[in-house]
Write a structure and sequence with these properties.
heterodimer; A: 102 residues; alpha+beta; B: 226 residues; 9 helices; elongated; disordered N terminus
């Protein structure tokens, strides 16, 4: 196995939970957003855990979030950005290349 | 703009960075590839308002509903129209499909917003188109059109033609090409079925519609696996 092979994989995406988050958001049609609650239900994380991972992805501009309302009535929606889709595509290609070489 | 920074949300369950960071150990690329495929497939399935099983259900219902009506009208000379029991079965099956479709649509689109969601105006157009088909049927009867037309060729084909064309137009506007081609195919099939006479129209429309829905189910299943 090439010594530098693991470095070819985006460390932000190459984490089980964040991989699941990004892959789930990528399944949405472009332009669509999903609520935090629905995403949490699909990924199966606690709200706090999900927020931590979403924050990391948002800091890298892989996702964008939008909050409406205040207090108990507030709603947060999340979507993958173009940069996030491109990053997932690059990650997928790198993974294919890596596994093809094994 | 970073929105996910509400400390109350993170504190609510007592989770912390360490718990999330524990996720960041060695992650075998083979496991990553398997997880990626599995997640993509599951997400596509859960976001899909028209999964293969729904198309399969619609195909079975189309075949059953139209078939039952055809059984009640075949051999009628002169043509009178479907028997009451056949119409009751047809409507019951249609209601079942509508309830199942709405239920599945709601489940798939809960929490999802954006251009892929059907807008209220689009639902209204489809509902009005459906209703007007039967209003026109009343006008045909009022004008003295024959039973072969009013209770045969027209109800067997006109709803499919109308909803097929309206559905195709709406699908084209959102660039949903699978739905566009399916809806257009249904409209064309129904037009051809009209040439088979009042009883034959039910049979041909039912078989062809079921076949089209089966093809859609197969295509949907193939896309989900891709």
């Amino acid at each position: 196995m090439p010594t530098d092979a693991p470095d070819a994989l985006d460390p932000l995406i190459h984490v089980p939970t964040r991989l699941r988050i990004v892959a789930t958001l990528a399944a949405l049609p472009e332009g669509d957003t999903v609520s935090f609650t629905r995403l949490q239900d699909m990924i199966g994380l606690t709200p706090g855990n999900l927020i931590i991972h979403l924050r990391k992805l948002e800091d890298a501009d892989y996702i964008i979030s939008h909050k409406t309302g205040n207090g108990a009535g507030s709603r947060t929606t999340v979507a993958l950005t173009d940069q996030g889709r491109a990053a997932l595509d690059t990650y997928t290609q790198a993974l294919r290349g890596l596994l093809g070489g094994l | 703009m970073n929105e996910i920074r509400d400390p109350n949300e993170a504190a609510a369950t007592g989770d912390n960075e360490a718990a999330a960071a524990g996720d960041e150990g060695e992650f075998d690329p083979r496991e990553a590839a398997a997880l990626l495929q599995q997640t993509k497939r599951r997400a596509r399935n859960r976001f899909n308002p028209n999964p293969p099983l729904m198309s399969l259900l619609r195909a079975i219902v189309a075949f059953g509903a139209y078939g039952v009506v055809w059984l009640s009208v075949r051999g009628q000379h002169p043509y009178k129209g479907p028997a009451g029991w056949a119409l009751a079965i047809l409507y019951a099956l249609v209601i079942i499909v509508i309830i199942a479709s709405v239920g599945y649509l709601k489940r798939a689109t809960t929490g999802v917003k954006g251009p892929s969601r059907m807008r209220p105006a689009e639902s209204i157009v489809l509902a009005v188109a459906w209703i007007l088909v039967y209003v026109f049927m009343g006008a045909l009867e009022h004008a003295g059109a024959s039973h072969a037309i009013v209770y045969g060729i027209y109800p067997a084909t006109a709803p499919l033609i109308m909803l097929g064309l309206v559905g195709a137009a709406l699908a084209q506007a959102r660039a949903d090409w699978p739905i566009f081609s399916g809806a257009l195919t249904v409209a064309v099939i129904a037009s051809v079925a009209a040439f088979f006479g009042p009883a034959g129209a039910w049979l041909v429309a039912g078989i062809a519609l079921a076949a089209a829905l089966l093809v859609q189910a197969g295509a949907s299943a193939w896309r989900q696996r891709a």
